[in-house]
Automatic annotation (TrEMBL), chain A:
Cellular component, GO, one term: cytoplasm
InterPro entries: ATPase_NBD (IPR043129), Gcp-like_dom (IPR000905), KAE1/TsaD (IPR017861), Peptidase_M22_CS (IPR017860), TsaD (IPR022450)
Documented EC number(s): 2.3.1.234
Name of the gene this protein is made from: tsaD
Xref: Pfam families: TsaD
Protein name, entry field: tRNA N6-adenosine threonylcarbamoyltransferase
SUPFAM superfamilies: Actin-like ATPase domain (SSF53067)
PANTHER family: TRNA N6-ADENOSINE THREONYLCARBAMOYLTRANSFERASE (PTHR11735), TRNA N6-ADENOSINE THREONYLCARBAMOYLTRANSFERASE, MITOCHONDRIAL (PTHR11735:SF6)
Top enzyme category: transferase
Compartments, record wording: Cytoplasm
Keyword Transferase appears in the UniProt entry: yes
Keywords: Acyltransferase, Cytoplasm, Iron, Metal-binding, Transferase, tRNA processing
Matches recorded under NCBIfam families: gcp_kae1 (TIGR00329), T6A_TsaD_YgjD (TIGR03723)
Automatic annotation (TrEMBL), chain B:
Species name: Streptomyces curacoi
Domain Gcp-like residue range list: 32-155
Record InterPro entries: ATPase_NBD (IPR043129), Gcp-like_dom (IPR000905), T6A_TsaB (IPR022496)
GO cellular component: cytosol
Name this polypeptide is given: tRNA threonylcarbamoyladenosine biosynthesis protein TsaB
Signal sequence bounds: none
GO annotation, biological process: tRNA threonylcarbamoyladenosine modification
Length: 365, 218
């Protein structure tokens, strides 16, 4: 449909420079340049390395996205950008690019929330989000259960990790096992050949008095590391595949159990899973199994849309345009600790109309 | 010629419009923590004051530092993106050269030094306001005392360390007006300007983890 908003989205909250283009809920382009290889030898994302890489990659990635989508920048209806949460310096590169891009094109700018974007991206895969939607977001930076009745204005946190993010636990265990960085894909691969019941690792925060929807992965991480160290100290070979499978099972067991419980408690019949860890094959399989048993429809976007990308930002931006949300002002800044409850960031200068007059004016018309 | 110049390599967020002969509008705000917030409204204000639209600009001039990275990238990313949309050249100018030009010293030698934080300065030596003698460097003031002894110095880095720079004076921060005037002069003389690439002068801080931390209590 040609009257759906055509939006370009920019994402730089971590180590991926993402530029995506959507028309309404249709994905047109998803260009990503990653600096992950530059971080591998450090065993984690180095903020300054990520920021430098964003600056280098931005213009070529915008170009690539426009070519991929086969659209002209002049035809865009808006520019969306991740305003937070994320790495401060990295976010600032994306926000600077988006502001300059929107200003130069004479298009409205939408500063949006990274977490809400992870949820909204599913519209590109499975069509309009049901309202309300329960979302489980799991990545190297976040592990949260969120309930949203309107992705542009209302995202309610149900629970979150009280220590490590799920993806962080994957990275740390991969490091203990000397499997390199990032840990998620490699653990998934080894786990496929291992026995998930070989070792009974603890399930954090699953006691009757524990918070129902919060997560904890720090205890699990320590338990797995100790188990491995004990094997090594005894001079025994570490069964890498079984450790990977049993560790992964402990993580995905808790994630899916709590997500399904939240859906049941809130009477929500859909569960959306997003974030980098949503690419994990065992998480997908177990979630499918448990959702089916509970009569819940599971929505998980394809792996490339689960990891950080610009299309998810564009998807939320398009929703902002479609629902008539106000554009952000030109003093929009990056907010590294933007609360999940703010899907949309208007900027500081809101209410001063002149910036919006400028943004509505198309320089080329 | 209509140049839009901007620099965010020092605590100043500075924007100017230059028509090849004169600066026709400019803005400078000193706030080291709000580069990202302040730059675009400043561009908007400068263009409005001059009564021109961004698409009338024929070239972008941007200070490439050296400067503390987070702020520095705001100007460079903005300049790159304007260049992309407008299809006009983006020229890089060393921020220290902009300060040297603004110092308006006919006969040196003299030194330009900006604050590099972490008790260091970014600095270079100049023969006169248009001629740099050394590559920009980052050092502790005490370590370069011999090299700058007896020379006049300008910039916040010089003003901050009077032991090393006893005859430091204004200008304190770079102005886009100076940057634009310098670029206009060079372009008119047919000189090539540098590519808009950041001068970080330091490697990113990053520790390579030796190994994972053992968690089993000893
Ligand atoms: Zn993410």
């Amino acid at each position: 449909m040609a009257d759906e908003p055509l939006v370009l989205g920019i994402e730089t909250s971590c180590d991926e420079t993402g530029v995506g283009i959507v028309r309404g809920t249709t994905l047109l382009a998803d260009a990503v340049a990653s600096s992950v290889d530059e971080h591998a030898r450090f065993g984690g994302v180095v903020p300054e390395v990520a920021s430098r890489a964003h600056l280098e990659a931005m213009v070529p990635t915008i170009d690539r996205a426009l070519k991929e989508a086969g659209v002209s920048a002049r035809d865009l209806d808006g520019i969306a950008v991740t305003a937070g949460p994320g790495l401060a310096g990295a976010l600032l590169v994306g926000v600077s690019a988006a502001k300059a891009y929107a200003y130069a094109l004479g298009k409205p700018l939408y500063g949006v929330n990274h977490l809400a974007s992870h949820i909204c991206v599913d519209q590109l895969e499975h069509g309009a989000l049901p309202e309300p939607t329960m979302a489980l977001l799991v990545s190297g930076g976040h592990s949260s259960l969120l309930l949203s009745s309107d992705i542009t204005s209302d995202v309610r946190p149900m629970g979150a990790t009280i220590d490590d993010a799920a993806g962080e636990a994957f990275d740390k265990i991969a490091r203990v096992l000397n499997l390199g960085f990032p840990g998620g894909p490699v653990i998934d691969r080894y786990a496929r050949e291992g026995d998930p019941e070989a070792i009974a690792f603890p399930r954090g925060l699953t006691g009757p008095r524990d918070p129902a929807y919060d997560f904890s992965f720090s205890g699990l991480k320590t338990a797995v590391a100790r188990w491995i160290e004990a094997k090594r100290a005894a001079g025994e070979e570490v069964p890498v595949r079984d450790v990977a499978a049993s560790f992964q099972e402990a993580v995905v067991d808790v994630l899916t159990r709590k997500a399904v419980r939240a859906c049941k408690d809130e009477g929500v019949d859909h569960l959306m899973i997003g974030g980098g860890v949503a690419a994990n094959s065992r998480l997908r399989a177990l979630a499918q199994e448990r959702c089916e048993a509970a009569g819940i429809r599971l929505r998980v976007p394809r792996p490339k849309l689960c990891t950080d990308n610009g299309a998810m930002v564009a998807a939320l931006g398009a929703e902002m345009v479609a629902r008539g949300r106000p554009a952000s002002s030109w003093d929009l800044s990056a907010d590294s600790s933007l609360p999940v409850t703010d899907p949309h960031v208007p900027g500081h200068d809101h209410g001063h109309d002149h910036v919006h007059e400028v943004s509505k004016e198309n320089l080329y018309s | 010629m209509l140049l839009l110049a901007l620099d965010t390599a020092t605590p100043a967020v500075t924007v100017a419009l230059h028509d090849g002969t004169d600066v026709i509008a400019s803005s400078s705000q000193v706030d080291a923590r709000r580069h990202g917030e302040l730059l675009l409204p400043a561009v908007d204000r400068v263009l409005a004051e001059a009564g021109v639209k961004l698409d009338a600009v024929t070239g972008i001039v941007v200070g490439v530092g050296p400067g503390p990275y987070t702020g520095l990238r705001v100007g460079l990313m903005t300049a790159d993106t304007f260049g992309l949309v407008l299809g006009v050249p983006v020229h890089g100018v060393c921020t220290l050269d902009g300060l040297a030009y603004a110092a308006d010293i006919e006969k040196g030698p003299f030194v330009v030094a900006t604050d590099a934080r972490r008790k260091e300065v970014y600095w270079a030596r100049y023969a006169d306001s248009r001629t740099r003698l050394t590559d920009p460097a980052v050092d502790r003031p005490a370590d370069i005392a011999d090299q700058v002894a007896g020379l006049p110095a300008v910039g916040a880095g010089a003003l901050l360390y009077p032991d090393t720079f006893p005859s430091a004076h204004e200008p304190e921060h770079v102005s886009a007006a100076a940057l634009a005037a310098l670029a206009a002069e060079k372009l008119a003389a047919g000189e090539e300007l540098a590519a808009p690439r950041p001068l970080y002068l330091r490697r990113p801080d990053a520790q390579v983890p030796k190994n994972y931390k053992v968690v089993t209590p000893k």
